[in-house]
Design goal:
- By secondary structure, the chain is α/β, with parallel strands linked by helices.
- Strands 1-2-3-4-5-6-7-8 form an eight-stranded parallel β-barrel, surrounded by seven helices.
- Helix 1 runs antiparallel to helix 11 and helix 7 runs parallel beside helix 8.
- The two termini are 34 Å apart.
- Its EC number is 1.5.5.2.
- Keywords: FAD, Flavoprotein, Nucleotide-binding, Oxidoreductase, Proline metabolism.
């Protein structure tokens, strides 16, 4: 990653937590181009998009946006919303599961209350035969997120897993430990602003570590979600799994809603399991900014969208 791109990404990620920028953006709703990356503001809109993706042979994981709540009352709203979402997925026959963020359940406010809320959602999902993914947020929450998932597994819940980010130095050790515990993982490169003290800076280093983590998981035989839009890594996975005779039932490719749609459809037609990460809700701003920070081309898409509307 060159200096200019790094500065661009850092500046945008700095806006993700800016309350004034967030309020200004959300006032204009989806008009800023967020609709490319966010499936809608309501559960009904997200379910409609999930059905469309299912019709194309693509599974989904639905994410009700709303990280870093400021009160336990907001956390309780998240719990109720996820339970309703799980019931709707089951009722509508959606091929999908759910993803949630621990800070959305009050992790920064009350650890015990957060655990109780997440446990209630995982229990609801278990009753409907659905899986729950605890998304990995920025590094202050890594240990707690892993501990919560491990706690739930120890309690007998087999329908829960989490995410490991390849740009963190610690991720090799985390994958080794969680693989030993047979934990279902999603592997990603990582999209938060992190210090060079704890994270790789260059794209090549992150890509190399991503391959190491994928290889370790594929060799283990434990089910793994490989979340990337990088065609070089996807081709490498295809080649490696053919060479090692690893069945496609042991892994899936995951991509974000609205990104590389033709590639998602192409992989699905080839017989690979593909899952689209489908976020929705009114608190879309931080997620939207991280998508813009990933690629300058995403910013140009938004600029063109705004100009076209005006």
């Amino acid at each position: 990653m060159d200096i200019g791109t790094r500065l661009f990404r850092t500046a945008l990620l700095g806006l993700a937590g800016n309350r004034a920028a967030r309020a200004l953006s959300e006032r204009y709703g989806m008009k800023l181009g967020a609709s490319r990356f966010v499936a809608g503001e309501t559960m009904e809109e997200a379910i409609a998009q999930a059905k469309r993706l299912n019709a194309e042979g693509i599974a989904v994981t639905l994410d009700f946006l709303g990280e870093s709540v400021s009160s336990l009352e907001e956390a309780q709203v998240s719990e109720r919303s996820y339970k309703e979402l799980i019931r709707m997925i089951s009722h509508e026959g959606i091929n999908g599961n759910v993803s949630l963020k621990p800070t959305q359940f009050g992790l920064a406010l009350d650890r015990k209350a957060c655990e109780e809320g997440i446990r209630a959602v995982v229990n609801e999902a278990a009753g409907h035969g659905l899986f729950v993914r605890l998304d990995m947020e920025d590094s202050p929450w890594t240990d707690a997120t892993i501990q919560i998932v491990q706690m739930l597994q120890d309690e007998g819940f087999s329908n829960v897993g989490t995410v490991i980010q390849a740009y963190l130095y610690r991720s090799g050790r985390d994958v080794q430990a969680m693989t030993a515990n047979k934990m279902n993982l999603r592997l990603v490169k990582g999209a938060y602003k992190e210090s060079r003290r704890i994270a790789f800076e260059s794209k090549q280093e992150v890509d190399d570590n991503m391959r190491r983590l994928i290889k370790a998981r594929l060799d283990s035989g434990i089910y793994t979600a490989i979340a990337t839009h990088d065609q070089r890594i996807i081709r490498w996975v295809q080649s490696y799994t053919r060479m090692r005779a690893i069945p496609r039932s042991k892994f899936e490719f995951q991509m974000l809603y609205g990104i590389r749609n033709p590639l998602q459809r192409s992989l699905a037609r080839e017989g690979y399991k593909v899952r689209s990460y489908v976020p929705f809700g009114r608190s879309w701003y931080p997620y939207f900014v991280r998508r813009l920070a990933e690629r300058p081309a995403n910013v140009m898409f938004v600029v063109k969208s705004v100009v076209w509307r005006n």
